[in-house]
């Protein structure tokens, strides 16, 4: 079988992508920087079942999406086009978006710090014996790493921040990390955006629990209620408060005037004579208070016979 021409490859790619757009409604847009072909193959194997990874040139993907939209009249997938920027790929899935995202994150491979790479994290060189002979100390001196010679090998004394996140890796840093056997970076597919049936959102949304959603909804309802009350605009959320506030106003008028109604009578009675509504527990408390001195007197009486017994034995202050 001969090689396919560029035109044939484009036709085959269009057919494949359009088929996926017909079958799937959920897509993860992933960054694929520094991800090798072997690693990508392992990710494909790990996701096999309900997910398909599709890579390709952004121009080809955009073209296929537009063709699919024109042929089907489905404009929803056009929302993917602005997201196809940089080295990205598409994961079509029928599974749970959160579970698929977590599965993708598992496939990370350690990588050396190559010259010119932008560090995705801070790189710290740990203290300890490096196993390098003293002739290698020049590497450490250039990078201002404190060392000492211990049993014929170079030992790093304290941890050193060799590269900061966002900085480019220099030749000296790359050479030292290579000599120490440190592979500080790890790369894999990173979920940038989620497409779900026409909606586009950040992957952080997948981490929200039902409790988080309820809390956010409650906060929104609270704001709506506050605004409605402030401008006296009736809404379903503010209705209970509006009725309560209105009832308070009516009750205040009834209390301040001779006008009354059944629900206000008890309040009026209380204001006239609060003693009628005193809790019955008060007398019980008084009785308990009265009982306490009585008990104390009984104790005193019990102690008095002891003094009389001393007198009976013939002892007296005047003897």
Summarize the structure.
This protein is of the alpha+beta class. Helix content is 48%, strand content 15%. It has helices spanning 6-23, 37-47, 58-72, 97-106, 137-142, 171-180, 210-230, 239-256, 262-272, 281-312, and strands at 26-31, 51-54, 88-93, 109-111, 123-125, 128-129, 147-150, 153-156, 160-163, 185-187, 190-196, 199-201.
Descriptive key words:
single chain, 319 residues, alpha+beta, Alpha-Beta Plaits, Molybdopterin biosynthesis moea protein, domain 2, 3 domains, five-stranded antiparallel sheet, 10 helices, 15% strand, disordered C terminus
**Rg:** 41 Å
What is the total domain count?
3
Helix content: 40-55%
Shape: flat
How many DSSP E strands?
12
The second-level CATH architecture of the largest domain is: 2-Layer Sandwich
Q: β content, as a range?
A: 15-25%
Rounded mean pLDDT is 80
What name goes with the CATH superfamily of the largest domain?
Ribosomal protein L10, N-terminal RNA-binding domain
Tell me the distance between the termini.
Answer: 139 Å
CATH topology of the largest domain: Alpha-Beta Plaits
Strand order of the largest sheet: 2-3-1-11-12
Low-confidence stretches: 287-292, 305-319
Helices, by number, come to 10
Order of helices and strands: HEHEHEHEEEHEEEHEEEHHHH
């Amino acid at each position: 079988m001969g090689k396919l021409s560029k035109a044939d490859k484009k036709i085959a790619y269009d057919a494949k992508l359009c088929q996926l757009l017909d079958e799937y409604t959920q897509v993860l847009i992933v960054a694929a920087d520094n991800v090798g072909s072997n690693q990508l193959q392992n990710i494909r194997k790990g996701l096999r079942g309900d997910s398909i990874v599709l890579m390709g040139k952004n121009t080809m993907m955009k073209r296929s999406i537009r063709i699919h939209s024109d042929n089907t009249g489905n404009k929803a997938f056009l929302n993917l086009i602005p997201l196809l920027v940089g080295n990205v790929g598409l994961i079509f899935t029928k599974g749970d978006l959160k579970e698929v995202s977590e599965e993708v994150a598992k496939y990370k491979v350690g990588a050396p710090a190559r010259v010119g790479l932008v560090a995705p994290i801070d790189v710290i060189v740990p203290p300890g014996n490096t196993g390098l002979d003293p002739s290698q100390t020049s590497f450490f001196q250039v990078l201002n790493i404190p060392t000492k010679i211990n049993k014929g090998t170079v030992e790093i004394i304290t941890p050193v921040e060799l590269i900061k996140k966002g900085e480019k890796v220099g030749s000296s840093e790359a050479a030292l990390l290579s000599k120490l056997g440190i592979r500080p970076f790890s790369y894999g597919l990173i979920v940038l955006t989620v497409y779900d049936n026409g909606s586009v959102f950040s992957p952080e949304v997948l981490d929200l629990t039902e409790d988080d959603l309820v809390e956010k909804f409650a906060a929104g309802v609270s704001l709506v209620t506050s605004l409605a009350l402030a401008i006296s605009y009736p809404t379903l959320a503010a209705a209970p408060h509006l009725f309560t506030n209105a009832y308070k106003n009516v009750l205040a008028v009834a209390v301040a005037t001779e006008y009354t109604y059944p629900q206000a009578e008890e309040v009026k009675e209380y204001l006239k004579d609060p003693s009628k509504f005193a809790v019955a527990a008060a007398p019980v408390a008084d009785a308990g208070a009265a009982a306490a001195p009585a008990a104390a007197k009984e104790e005193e009486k019990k102690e008095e016979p002891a003094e009389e017994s001393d007198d009976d034995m013939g002892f007296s202050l005047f003897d």
